[in-house]
TrEMBL record:
GO molecular function terms attached to this record: FAD binding; monooxygenase activity
Top-level division of the source organism's lineage: Eukaryota
Alphabetized UniProt keyword annotations: FAD, Flavoprotein, Monooxygenase, Oxidoreductase
Keyword Oxidoreductase listed: yes
All residue ranges annotated as the FAD-binding domain in the record: 7-349
Record's protein name: FAD-binding domain-containing protein
UniProt cross-references to InterPro entries, sorted A to Z: FAD-bd, FAD/NAD-bd_sf
Gene3D superfamilies in the cross-refs: FAD/NAD(P)-binding domain
Matching Pfam families: FAD_binding_3
Record-annotated membrane-spanning stretches: none
């Protein structure tokens, strides 16, 4: 007979799925993943870019999960670790043929790799969380009766020993632990695509090759990266109000009219009108529908909570420490959170165990040990990314970034 799960992982992104896989390989199998997406088929708003996995974090997570060989042999693009830095006049500032052991993988391939490593019945698709509520028989936390998860479809679930919020920047689990909320960074990306038959494809290929290009200057950026099927993603980075995208479209956001409205705004004096023609080509030809990514972060000093606040509940990844993406470590840090949480659960509660049978004190000790490590790592990432964001969007961005890459600042 199936034992009801004692662990609820909320969110089937990189951090939640790595945790699920690590629990599976450790023999802690009484878990379930609640994911708001309706199925594993990528939705229209799913992020489709590429991620470089770092040796000590993202790659380490895949090693512990027993997935590194498949990643390395079949999916990792080792030749994509090349990086070109240009200024807004189109002048090459630096070419790095190899930025080190940082192979790229499409975000969607990473998700598929992780999904295929977990028994499918343990993922409950179409289970978006509306909120998590703590049931108390009175005001005292000592008489805690556990938590109830309310889903957006009107159903609910209860009886979990551990709830892990891995539900990203707008986590619905986080309010149980801390009142902190993500704040807007003042910067956003607008994402477009350059397919094989795009008039700018050859230009992108010449400039970027199999890796990444970053063009910086005048408080703006253009980032271009190749994906596994050879097409390019292009990200226009702006300093702009949070609602920039909505304010500048009068049509449905997915329509070609909306794309053209945003394009003409990007080509205006305020943004890329004075950039070199080759860079403007990328703006003129990028395919829509453009997708806005307003960038949020949690203030580092507000990352953290007292363990006594919410027994049996914790957060992973962006839910705990959302940062801007300016050091390219968010996913690596999030996957590593899952490594540490799984490791602490095993060391305090044991391998091949049912969490239902574990004493509270052991579970809380595991969570405290995990959080001590995670809070510091998350705060450090947010701070470094904010600093990097200041550099990337400064007047003198390309030179400051080169100094940083050379280790001079
Ligand atoms: C534009 C952009 C570019 C980036 N580039 C990079 C990069 O190059 N390198 C890098 O390391 N990082 C990058 N990041 C950061 C990286 O994407 C995140 O740090 C990482 O995805 C966090 O993983 P996660 O599992 O914690 O959360 P997420 O990836 O956000 O996953 C959360 C999961 O929870 C689900 N979910 C959300 N809400 C609910 C709910 N209420 N109920 C149930 N399920 C829910 C979501 O559908 C999703 O599956 C980038 C971020 C952005 C915005």
């Amino acid at each position: 007979m199936d034992t009801p799960p004692s662990i609820a992982i909320v969110g089937g992104g990189p951090s939640g799925l790595v945790l699920a896989r690590l629990l599976e390989v450790s023999g802690i199998t009484d878990y379930v993943v609640f994911e708001r997406d309706e199925s594993s088929t990528p939705g229209p708003n799913e992020q489709g870019g590429t991620l470089d996995l770092h040796q000590d974090s993202g790659q380490e997570a895949l090693k512990r999960a027993g997935l590194f060989d498949k990643f390395s042999n079949e999916l990792a693009r080792w030749d994509a670790a090349c990086f070109h830095l240009l200024d807004s006049a189109g002048k090459t500032i630096a070419n790095f043929s190899d930025v080190g052991n940082r192979p790229e993988i499409d975000r969607l391939q990473l998700r598929r790799l992780l999904l295929e490593s977990i028994p499918q019945h343990k993922i409950r698709w179409g289970h978006g969380i509306r909120c998590v509520e703590r049931r108390k028989s009175d005001k005292s936390i000592v008489d805690d009766d556990g938590c109830i998860i309310h889903f957006t479809n009107g159903s609910s679930a209860t009886g979990f020993r551990l709830i892990v919020g891995a539900d990203g920047v707008w986590s619905k689990v986080r309010p149980l632990l801390t009142p902190t909320r993500p704040v807007y960074s003042g910067k956003l990306y607008i994402e477009g695509k350059i397919s094989h038959n795009n008039p700018s494809y050859h230009l992108a290929h010449e400039l970027v090759g199999p890796g990444n290009m970053l063009v910086l200057g005048d408080e703006k950026t253009i980032a271009v990266q190749q994906l596994s099927d050879g097409h390019y993603r292009v990200y226009f980075g702006l300093v702009a109000p949070e609602n920039f995208y909505q304010r500048n479209i009068s049509f449905d956001a997915n329509s070609s009219e909306a794309t053209e409205e945003i394009r003409s705004r990007l080509l205006s004096d305020e943004f890329f009108a004075h950039w070199t023609p080759r860079m403007k080509d990328l703006v003129e030809n990028a395919e829509g529908p453009f997708r806005p990514w307003p960038l949020y972060f949690i203030k580092p000093e507000t990352v953290g909570w007292d363990r006594s606040v919410a027994p049996g509940v914790t957060l992973l990844g962006d839910a705990a420490h959302a940062s801007t993406p300016f050091v390219g470590e968010g996913v690596n840090c999030s996957m590593y959170d899952a490594v540490i949480l799984a490791e602490r659960l095993v060391s305090h509660c044991g391998e091949n165990t049912m969490l239902a049978d574990v004493e509270n004190v052991k579970l809380e000790a595991a969570l405290a040990a995990y959080e001590k490590d995670m809070f510091a790592r998350g705060q450090d990432l947010i701070r470094r990314s904010s600093e990097s964001g200041k550099r990337l969007f400064s007047d003198n961005a390309s030179h400051l970034t080169l100094q940083m890459l050379n280790g001079d600042i």
